[in-house]
Amino acid sequence: MLLLIDAHAVRRLTSATFQSLKTLKMASSGRKLGSMTRFQHTLPNLPVPPLQQTMDKYLRAVGPLLNHEEMETTRKYVEEFRKSGGTGEVLQNLLEKRAKEKTNWLSNWWLHVAYLAYRLPVVVHVSPATMFPLMPHFDRTEVRLKFTSNYMRKLMQWKHLVDTDVLPPLKVGNKPVCSSGRQKMTSSCRVPRPQIDGQVMYKPHESRHMVVAHNCQFFEVDMFQPNSNSLLSPPQLYRQLEEVIAMSPDTTIPPVNERVGLLTSNDRDTWAEARQRLTADNMNMKSIESIQSCVAMICLDQPNPNIRDIHDIAMYNDDEMSIACTRGLHGNGVARNSGNRWFDKTMQFYIGGDGGCGSVLEHSFADGLPAIDLVDTLLDYCYSSEASSWRAEDAQSVSAPQPRKLVWNLSDETKRDILESAEKLDRFPCLLTDRY
Fold first, then answer.
1. What value does the mean pLDDT take over residues 294-300?
2. Which phi and psi angles does 389 have, rounded to 5°?
């Protein structure tokens, strides 16, 4: 069972809902490879609703929020706005002109107003998450790392198909839908700036690694053979993940005011100011650049002691379900895994030592349909016979590049910025409980 999680709801994708997603997945993974974007020119442009229809809908929407006197005043303004030759008609004509010139007259405005100019933290307020089926035996390091190695390699193969435009297009049933969102999901990152954020995307030759987070520390992990375009094998990735864990044992977990990832949980203007101080040091800028340019972030999480050691989500009680689901939204707080994140990164996949796994999406770059399709593809592979065809022991007989730990030079001011971010995060209403 796959769970979709956002700030307002937790939905179990079962029965009809799950079936519709399965239909999408089957349509997008057809046997014959073709141009992923070959249907883009056939998709209809976003229409502009008629002015009178928009005004009627607006009145219906505000009706429950206003008393009689307020509603009458609002109706008066609406009638003035919608009259022939009025302001509404002038603006409607401008919208219709814009719609003729653009595929989607709303998308850039929506991106800027709903996402990039939104000043609250992306954590909980913006970024949705998914929760995978509960993974059995993930308390055993070899089981968890084998799954992660297969997952990382399949993600790289998927990215290559997207980069070369040969992945089958997304469809719902037999109807194609926009596939362009897939191109933005990897090798991209949101960047905090005053008043309105920015975005960065990297070309394939600039993004040949992933960043693995473990114990609130970050490691650059190569995905390709040195000086080659050949992907590392799953045992070689496993070897690197073993090194990451060896380089960041529990005794090395940094104090709260040195967990740099917590900065990304703050409101956007505060984080933008803190980032300017952080990146004044060249070493810090190089570490951030590695995170921004990586294909995706893999978060190897510590188990949550408030979740029983069971292997079926259906056996969770309500508190356990909330804890498991919200790990994706916020990491369950500073004392758990919130510092093991970089919330600006478009795609983060968290792999818990208690079998709780999933993804968290930075929403300005990524949307639901392509993200769910990607997760479905990766999980299908991880359960396949090919993914099971090698053993963890095979990693001991291969050589692999050495992971590179990302290093930070933290000033006292930046340490105060991190501590402030941590305190704010733990004051989120959804975290003001002892159940996490």
1. 98
2. -80, -5
Predicted pLDDT of residue 334: 94
Q: SS3 string of 178-218?
A: CCHHHHHCCCEEEECCCCCCEEEECCHHHCCEEEEEECCEE
Structure-block tokens of residue 251: 């005794």
Which DSSP state fits 345? B
Q: Does pLDDT of 103 surpass 60?
A: yes
Distance CA 424, CA 118 (A): 17
Q: Which residues pair with 82 in a beta bridge?
A: none
- How many angstroms separate the CA atoms of 41 and 222, rounded? 37
Residues above pLDDT 70, as percent of the chain: 89
Contact 206, 293 (CB under 8 A): yes
- Does the global pTM surpass 0.85? yes
Would you tell me how many other CB atoms lie within 10 Å of the CB of residue 388? 11
What pLDDT digit, counting tens, does each position of 337-360 carry? 999 999 999 999 999 998 889 999
What integer pLDDT is reported at residue 324 of this predicted model? 78
Is residue 26 over pLDDT 70?
no
Q: What is the DSSP string of 236-272?
A: HHHHHHHHHHHHS-GGGPPPGGG-GGGGGGS-HHHHH
Residue with tokens 């709903």: 114
- Kindly report the average pLDDT of the chain as a whole number: 89
Residue 385 has pLDDT above 80, yes or no: yes
Alpha-carbon Rg for the chain in angstroms: 23
* Dist. CA 384–CA 200, nearest whole Å: 34
DSSP secondary structure of 386-415: TTTSS-GGGGGG---PPPEE------HHHH
Cα–Cα distance measured from residue 24 to residue 10, given in angstroms and rounded to the nearest whole number: 21
**CA atoms of 264 and 369, how far apart (whole Å):** 25
Place of tokens 């008629």: 50
Does 185 have pLDDT greater than 90? Answer: yes
Name 186's bridge partners.
Answer: none
The residues that are catalytic are: 363
What's the rounded Cα separation, in Å, for the pair 375 and 151?
A: 10
Point out which residues pair with 131 in neighbouring strands. 3, 358
Strand pairing partners for 352?
Answer: 301
- Looking at per-residue pLDDT, the higher value among 337 and 9 belongs to 337
